[in-house]
Amino acid sequence: MSSATTYALGAVALVLIVVIVIAAIRWGRDDAAVRNDGYGSVRNEAVHSVLEQNGSILLGRPDAKKTIDIFEDPLCPGCGSLERIYGQEIAQKIDEGALAVRYRLVNFLDARSRSKDYSTRAIAANQCVAEAGSGPIYSKFHTELFTTKRPSEGGADLSNEELAAIAGDAGAAESVRQCIATGAKVESARSSAMAQTAALGAALGGSAATPAVFDGTTKVDTNDENWVVSLTR
């Protein structure tokens, strides 16, 4: 990647971060009831996780009827709210083959983590787990990272060893845990996150926020509590 491209992508991230923080505040106040509470994460062994060449993570059955894109930052409070409120409903739709989700993870909030690189390291951990291919294991790991294990902005975040332990609890193999603990994908995750940042900015005309859900090129209105159901009608 050229220096000019790197600076350009960095500028996009800086421009977007103010909007992202505003969106996070809105989502953080969202007191909507959890949808499909009690279902849990993906459980169907026919669901696979695929680490795509550009760093995106595709979670779904091979015969899924529709694929949506979700942009998230692992430290983003709004992304945590999205996963807490709608994650179980999405998981059931994935199990049924009605939906597949392409997670496009960004690292806008690295600077707001105590380690200054938590979002990037968490993205790398997601990529390590996804590459192994198990949909249920990846889904459980992703859910934990964005809900019960998500650090607060500015507070203590998770080390690579702690991220690896969460992956182990989700059922990941030793080789996956080592991938996380050693930071094997951190640099590639940093590059892919910058590219996803640029893509999100382009999709919304230069201003964007996470979480952001797209059905093709159409941004989904996640303020509509029935948006998951509407996508699968």
Describe this structure in words.
Helix content is about 50%, strand content about 10%. A 6-stranded mixed beta sheet has the order 1-2-4-3-5-6, sandwiched between helices. The chain has 8 helices and 6 strands. The protein starts with a helix and ends with a helix. The longest helix is centred in the first third of the chain and has 26 residues, at about 5-30. The protein has about 230 residues and is α+β, with helices and mostly antiparallel strands. It has helices spanning about 5-30, 75-95, 120-130, 135-145, 160-170, 175-180, 185-205, 225-230, and strands at about 50, 55-60, 65-70, 100-105, 210-215, 220. Residues about 1-30 have low confidence and may be disordered.
How do the helices and strands line up, and which of them pair or pack?
Elements: H1 3-28, E1 48-51, E2 57-60, E3 67-72, H2 77-96, E4 100-105, H3 118-131, H4 135-146, H5 160-170, H6 174-181, H7 186-203, E5 212-215, E6 218-219, H8 227-231
Parallel strand pairs: 3-4
Antiparallel strand pairs: 1-2, 2-4, 3-5, 5-6
Helix pairs in contact: 1-2, 1-7, 3-4, 3-5, 3-6, 3-7, 4-5, 5-6
